[in-house]
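Example (one chain per record):
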Amino acid sequence: MSVIDTATRTGGRASSVAAALLLPLVDRVPVMAAPCRMHASIDRITASLADWTREIGLETPVLARFDRMAGRAFAGFGTDSTLLFAKWLTWLFHFDDEWDEKPAGRAAGIVEATFSRLVRHTAEAVHGETQAARTAMTASLTAARPRPAAPVMTRIPSPLPVRTPRPEGVSPVEAAFRDLWGATAPRMSRRWRERFAHGLAAQGAACRTEAENRCAGRVPSITEYPVLRRGTVGPYLFDLVEPCLGVEVPAELRECRTWRTLVDACNDVTAWCNDVASHHKERANGDVHNYVMVAAHAFGLSDAEAVAWVNDRIAERSEDLRAAARRLPGLFDEFGLTPVEARNASKVACAFLTAPRAQLEWLLESERYDVTA
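Predicted structure:
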């Protein structure tokens, strides 16, 4: 079924109407042009995800369809890999709702305390970590970038779900994070775990800024917003592609400008598409942290004009994504990657290139942003 057909079948809900505003990009943006395949085991993934959310205590509407977003983005990979990513997506959207739709999103202290607990857990939960290592990981959160290191590409076993009882007094969202971290972190290097913790801390700082903005009635500037949005998405979401595919990108490649552009451009494109699809709901909730509303406020635009302006930015940023991907083969040679390392890094890059179209199709079928939900 095509994207156009999917949009038509949604019955004119506000969510599908807003997501349909992205459809002109299909003809403008090559990475959004070709329909995605769906994972062959999507029914099994859907059922397993539903079991997990029920057991962990996350209330997830069936029509949110996070499993189908993962099923498109990871259509060519294993069932366990796709299921793990679907669980992380489900957790991330629940976690995001803590700040966007609940009173905690206006309490900077609660934001800071919550993220501190999660960051601390990333250091404490990995088997075999010494106290010195935990201290070093926590201290690394204040560093601008990880120390350079020799390229590493590790093949990791397929991730398997880990079930742990929810401790008394721990919310379902935090329990789900602990469960997922236990299933993911032990298979990754300390360098990857530090990178994840950096991303989690960056998200915490961005969410705190949003909380302060809400309390002050402040709308972010047009230049501030893209960086702020990149943080609130959860930068670690893009790092999670590696454990889900069972690889680790060499440090030298991962830290180069081209790879950083690839990741940041994928983050921006998917976040801004999400903003177009969700701006009706966020306006109804009184939240100004949305690129469409920021543009309307900055330039005095109508809703339609602001959407068109954001779509132009999405098209431009999508070109950055494609250009970075085209430069990768040369970098593989420059950094001396083996054929296996190059192939595995290419798998991660392909997941980033698939993400914009996979998200578009998900936005058109999901009821997550229905203002009547």
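Caption: The chain is about 65% helix and 0% strand.
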